[in-house]
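The authors assume throughout that readers already know how a fold can be written as discrete tokens. Each protein is reduced to its one-letter sequence and a matching series of backbone shape codes. I therefore recommend that a typical entry be quoted early in the introduction. For illustration, here is how one protein appears when written out as sequence plus structure tokens:
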Amino acid sequence: MEYQEYSPASDLLPFIDCYWTLRMESQPVTSSRRVIPDICADVIINLGEEVQIWNGETHQLKSEKPYLIGTMTTFQHMLLQPGTNLAGIRFKPFGLSTLVGIRQQGMANKIEELDRKTFTLDCGHFPQIGVDQDHPDHFAKINTWLLRQINDEDNSTINRLIGTLLGAQGRITVRELASQYAITERQLERKFGESLGVPLKEICNLIRFQYAYQLISNRREQSLLDIAFEAGYYDHAHLTRHFKRYAGYPPSQMG
């Protein structure tokens, strides 16, 4: 299994986490990959064999088709067979709606096939992703197209808001965030629900889980209880519940 990430153009960093590719060219047997939820949404083009994804329901990613993976609030299992060749764009929160004009209301944990010819109605045709193995910039056309969609005036507040959530590791209430940005709680919740398909409180929980996940991945002598407190959990049991919900296993099983 060969998974690689590529950085977008610097001006796209507030909106895109990375471009990525996943291939199964040399491995002769079927393989499974667990995907841990984050606060991003992905657009995936299947350039190879059919891929199966399970997230409580079974989905088939057909060859030569583009798909939208909505904001995840639970883990996924990808069943990869020889000949798998996926290319994707991982959008940060509000990146998909801002750059591509796709809102995710009702799309949490959903996988939806997109019309490749009319990828978006708001920004014009989305360029086809054709990953050239020998090209130094696999996603040059995507970079160029997305850069044309940026409107700094409209996006500055959104970028600062997400930065505040990440800076607080998700440990901030809806009331505190609304007060800080002079917006009502109802407006704030509606903005998250429409654009991300996930309530703001759930986004905060996912950010906190991701922070704890990284702490555990990199820990040395630190106990799980200490990590739970550092990540803002009440106790070890609270941390374990979140891990089972989002990752499918308790934190004690992380290597």
Summary: The beta strands are 2-6, 16-23, 31-35, 41-46, 51-54, 58-61, 66-69, 76-80, 85-91, 111-113. Confidence is low (pLDDT under 50) at residues 120-125. DSSP finds eight helices and ten strands in the chain.
